[in-house]
Design goal:
Elements lengths: L1 H18 L8 E11 L4 E5 L6 E3 L10 E9 L10 E2 L3 E5 L12
Antiparallel strand pairs: 1-2, 1-4, 2-3, 4-5, 4-6
Length: about 110
């Protein structure tokens, strides 16, 4: 019994040492307006204000070439390999903004 208690104390101590006893920061929540484009693996929300663009996991609610205002938490980790932060769409409002087709890169 003492051995099990000792192991439990060590495990709890290691857990606190990894987090410095602090709680993990909650994900930053943002609201972004822009157009949806197809990325390499995921959809990309191109910010209409020219600021940070975000990767989005494909959803039946989002259509390429349409504009939306999307609110949700942002994560740096995920399955998208676009090199952009990943926005998890929690609130989605379709807008009537005009989305230009993406410019093609010339070789």
């Amino acid at each position: 019994m003492k051995r099990i208690l000792g192991i439990a104390v060590v495990i709890v101590g290691l857990g606190f040492s990894q987090t410095d006893g602090k709680k993990a920061n909650p994900a930053k929540r943002v609201t972004v307006t822009g157009c949806i484009y197809q990325g390499v693996e995921c959809l990309v929300l191109k910010n209409s204000k020219g600021k940070q663009d975000y990767s989005l996991v494909r959803s039946n609610n989002l259509q390429v070439g349409h504009s939306y205002q999307i609110t949700g938490p942002v994560s740096e980790l995920g399955t998208c390999q676009e090199g952009k932060p990943i926005l998890s769409a929690q609130m989605v409002h379709e807008l009537k903004l005009r989305c230009e087709p993406p410019t093609e890169r010339r070789k």
